[in-house]
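Reply to dn_fold:

You asked what the input looked like. This is it:
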Amino acid sequence: MNQAAAFDAHLSKAAERRPSQADLEFSRYSIFARHEAGSAMTAQQPDMQLILVSNRVSSFDPGEPKTGGLAAALEPAVERSGAVWMGASGTLSDGSEQLTPLEPHGKGQVAKVDLPAAHYAGFYHEFSNSTLWPALHSLTERMSPASEEHYNSYCQINRAMARALSCLRKRDAIWVHDYHFLSLGKELRELAIEQPIGFFLHTPWPNPDVIEKVPHHRDLMETMLAYDLVGFQTRWDLDNFLSCLQVHLGMESRSDVVISERGLTRCQVFPIGIDPKQFAKYAVESLVEYRQEISSIQDKLDRTKLAIGVDRLDYTKGIDNRIKAFDLLLTNKPQSISLLQIGTSSRADIPAYSEYQRDIACLVEDVNRKHGTDDGCEPILYKKDHFSQVRLAGYYRTADVGVVTPLRDGMNLVAKEYIAAQDSNDPGVLVLSKFAGAAEDLNENGPLHVDPTSPDDIAAAISTAIEMPREERIERWRAMINTLEAYTIHDWSKDFVRELGPSRVAVPADQFRYLGFGWLNEAQVPMYATAEELNVAVKHVQDTRWILP
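and this is what came back:
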């Protein structure tokens, strides 16, 4: 009898003598790999046949603009691993969802779905971006009231995406991305999808008091436990999620594992990185390709010290406080620095966003009117163009200060791109919000951390940055680039996929007193060379008198 058969035989016997849920021990666990006796019990390899799911898919062209960190994060995973990336096509259907033919991209493919028009607005504009988005960023004052109809549309689109995904059910595993699809895992389980399903949240996760303001927050959190693995950007986000489960659902966790009626869900931190070497290469290329354009902008800014901000025009990004900080700085130190603010339009058809964009334009006009020179030079150049990564990299390298001041952010890859683009012999200084995920990733010896709600704090940090000696700038930059190179975007995707394999528990959660035999990590998992050795181990687990070693 092989190892898998022996395990299945004991599993059927175990079902006849289930301990109560209260008796279950919470511990990290590992999966029995279904191999013949003598083979190693290891996690699924990163080259497994994977489906990635997000609300939208990318252009896959470095010369084309990228909107948000999700696209920059998933492109390499698709092109290198052979994954299928599924997302909304942007075309809405009159009836049910429709899956378009697969399109090749590198080793991978893209599948686009025409989603039902009847529910898309309620799903995307209302519940996802007017309710969930501000709540997840702890900005409850920005939340719009969500109706039952909006929540129902959110569920219906998740259900439609699940039906489309079921057409590709032969793939090894599914990796779902972001707040649009919190309940997609549950919908897939109801369609009898048995493969491992993981979820990664690109936004922050708030504390229990904030998530309570989201309609159906209990239902949403409970549906997330249909995923085998739930990933977060920072430890802060993960701890908040576990606190929310405890406060609102009464669910405890041990070693970041949660037991629900479905089984086990592992929660883990995976900080998104970039490809720093690729971005450094872009910077060199950009200084050649866009030399005249960059020089022209420097002339417009009177060739003072240059700061750069690159953001979607989103109220979470703190652009208004940043501009107020420049007003303060220029009042105290006239003509000391200029700002190139690149702001790409985002969700302009949502009133909160269109209003914010108008506010930013007015603030820029006011600062330029107050601090502009007689010869027409203005201290803030506000560009609403879409910049490609290659084009951006040259501007990053030219800027003396990178200003990244979101009120709250999942990670913020602009901060990491700015670092990667710098000249190692004369790097700029990163001014970074302490509430960006990147602040947890980059220690205090690298960026200048600031309170993004305080223009005074931001102004003081920028003033420090422009006066910082070259030796200190180099020292800070080296600390940051070492962090970036130690954990790249490729490490991030490989780690998640590697962890997704052992997140599957072969033993139903309510059948064993000692989940996973009490192993705390994969390195402790014993190897069973024979079925007889496995038999002894399983008997120990079934014996209520057995004491965990």
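The longest strand covers residues 84-93.
Hope that clears it up.
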